[in-house]
Amino acid sequence: MKKTVLFLCIVLMSSSISMVLAGGVGISPAYYKVFFEPGMVKSFQFHSFNLNPLSKVNLYVQGDLSKYVSLSNHSLDGDGFFSVTVRLPQEIDVPGVHKIYVGAIESKNISEGGVIGGIASVRGRIDIIVPYPGEYAESTFSISNINEGENANYKLGVQNLGLKKITVKPHIEIYKSSPSKSILNQSLRIFTLTPKSSLNIIGELHTKDLHAGSYYAIAIVDWGKKIDKIKKQFRVGEFLVDIIDYDYLFEQNKINKFNIEIQNKWNTKINRVSANVVITDEGKVVSSFKTVSVSANPWETKNITGYFDTNGLKAKRYIASIVVSYDGKTSSKLVAIYVQKPVSRTYIKYIIIASVVVFLFLVIFIYLILKIKWLEKNENKK
Fold first, then answer.
1. By C-alpha distance, which of 227, 231, 255 is closest to 313?
2. pTM for the whole thing?
3. pLDDT digits (tens, 9 = 90+) for 56-87
4. What gap in Å lies between CA 70 and CA 319, rounded to an integer?
5. Where are the alpha helices (DSSP H) in 2-106?
6. Which residue, 295, 331, 335, 299, is CA-closest to 318?
7. Phi, psi of 50 (to 5 degrees)
8. What Å distances lie between residue 263 and 245, 269, 276, 365, 377, CA to CA?
9. How far apart are CA 351 and CA 5, in angstroms?
10. Is 100 exposed, middle or buried (0-12, 13-18, 19+ CB in 10 A)?
11. How far apart are CA 218 and CA 254, in angstroms?
């Protein structure tokens, strides 16, 4: 219950707080959405700001309907509100979503001719939705990653973008791999949507019995004329920090970095992840060290680093026991590593010289071929 409430709060917060920010320039809200009406005249309020109060912000409009748009201001001194007025024609031939982009950019980044450049540039948006004739709907679907023993939160949205009423029959199926046989099938209520109305369903899927791994959830939305199928992948987390990769080649008689690549396979942050590495030669411990301690975000892959002192060790093969510790649990791997003699600097210098010489010969060879072809071409013209 608490997880459902938290999910609802996150959705509500993300929909109510809308701001676009790039560099030091920002604009809010991020977008508006309205349905087309013949001859509609409507104004939209935006707020633009610049973290540098001494720099002016220029405003502009882009999009296929930009010729029907006017701005109350074309520039602002750092911060301020402005309105965007849209005066639409009596009809728009192409149905669907038409996007009007409202941009703010530092004045020094707009060149002559209206070409926009620089990094401190952002755009808000006004979506003008022109209804489709007859029945037409569009659907959206999202599902959360979870841990073992948890239900997955989902959000399903259906919007009637046609001129006729539709009946919506949605259900959700879950598969372990490519769709073959579903392991979960959950039907939802049947809804009726009038033109220009939308449906948003937030709920839980009964996924408590799923084992750790990756799954596919498919939302199937039957709205009469067509069936929308939206496929999303989600993961069920296992309380595990897995050892993905590690360094295995080290130089003799020096202190080497020993990187261990780990992945948090839990859908929650894990703190204080560290590794203990013990190096053995025919069962005898010859070196050991501990890595730094790090935290790993859900599903994050990252390196943890220790230092392997090879002074006094022979150049040969050794066995390393890597034990990763986290919140009272451990993961381990027994691997082969190799200590090798330092590479001669003279040898490296010869390799570099040889590479340069080969490259130069290759360039000259290509030049001669092109020159011969050019001469032959000119000779044929004569």
1. 255
2. 0.71
3. 889 999 999 999 999 999 998 878 999 999 99
4. 72
5. 2-16
6. 335
7. -135, 130
8. 10, 11, 16, 49, 60
9. 64
10. buried
11. 55
